[in-house]
TrEMBL record:
Organism: Labrus bergylta (ballan wrasse)
Subcellular location field: Cytoplasm; Nucleus
Protein name: Copper homeostasis protein cutC homolog
InterPro entries: CutC-like, CutC-like_dom_sf
Protein role: May play a role in copper homeostasis. Can bind one Cu(1+) per subunit.
Highest taxon, organism lineage: Eukaryota
Length: 251
């Protein structure tokens, strides 16, 4: 039934969180550094977002960009972040870890899941970097992850649609398969109909100009390919509303 569809919106600000809820999102994935695919947000951001929204807030546990093979020190950070986010109001967590040969790091993930209990946990798009998605999915089921976010191991959910469909069929309801990656109002219906998934993930953002009047255009705060200093990306109420309406009308 149409009401079974749920849109998760990844957000990195209070404004985006509020906009996503207003647009009809059913859940938030709270991160920072969306340019890097999402990193662990601050406790301050989590606490203020929780003050302004009522829908569940799942927090990203990812200490850095890049691969998903973590050092002992990074694992320590992730353990502490799980503990802190859990004790400060997170409704769920989003995490993942791989071995050097591209398998799910079952031992480490088991440890993280134990630390997260009783919160539900999503395995994030580290899944798209695994050597064998069918084998990885069975590992996630056996470990007890609630869902996996995936673009079907391709550049976008549309490109990876055949793999997403196979994963949904393989999962048989034991774990939720949530397509994500490049989802827009132009391709959502095709992705939902083609995959059989009941949840989907997107950022639904629009550009917003900075309110700064004085601008020093000679300086950037990040690397050469960083985001513009005087432009913001925020979740767009209208875009979220359009995507949730498409989902409702797909069945």
């Amino acid at each position: 039934m149409a009401e079974e569809y749920l849109m998760e919106v990844c957000v990195d600000s209070v404004e985006s969180a509020v906009n996503a809820e207003r647009g009809g999102a059913g859940r938030l994935e709270l991160c920072t550094s969306l340019l890097e695919g999402g990193l662990t947000p601050s406790l301050g951001l989590l606490q203020i977002v929780k003050q302004y929204v009522k829908i569940p807030v799942y927090v990203m546990i990812r200490p850095r960009g890049g691969d998903f093979l973590y050092s002992d020190h990074e694992v320590e950070v992730m353990r502490k972040d799980i503990e802190l986010m859990k004790s400060h109001g997170a409704d769920g967590l989003v995490l993942g870890a791989l071995t050097e040969d591209g398998r799910v790091d079952a031992e480490l993930c088991m440890e993280f899941l134990a630390a997260a209990r009783p919160l539900p946990v999503t395995f994030h798009r580290a899944f798209d970097m695994v050597h064998d998605p069918a084998v990885a999915l069975e590992t996630l089921v056996s470990l007890g992850f609630q869902r996996v976010l995936t673009s079907g191991c391709d550049t976008s959910a549309l490109e990876g649609l055949p793999v997403i469909k196979r994963l949904v069929d393989q999962a048989k309801g034991r774990i939720a398969i949530m397509p994500g990656g490049g989802i827009t109002e132009r391709n959502l219906q095709r992705i939902l109909e083609g995959s059989g998934a009941q949840e989907f993930h997107g950022s639904a953002r629009s550009s917003k100009d900075s309110a700064m009047k004085f601008r020093n255009t000679c300086v950037t705060m990040g690397a050469a390919f960083s985001a513009p200093e005087y432009g913001l990306k925020v979740a767009d109420v209208c875009k979220v509303r359009t995507l949730t309406a498409i989902a409702r009308n797909t069945l």
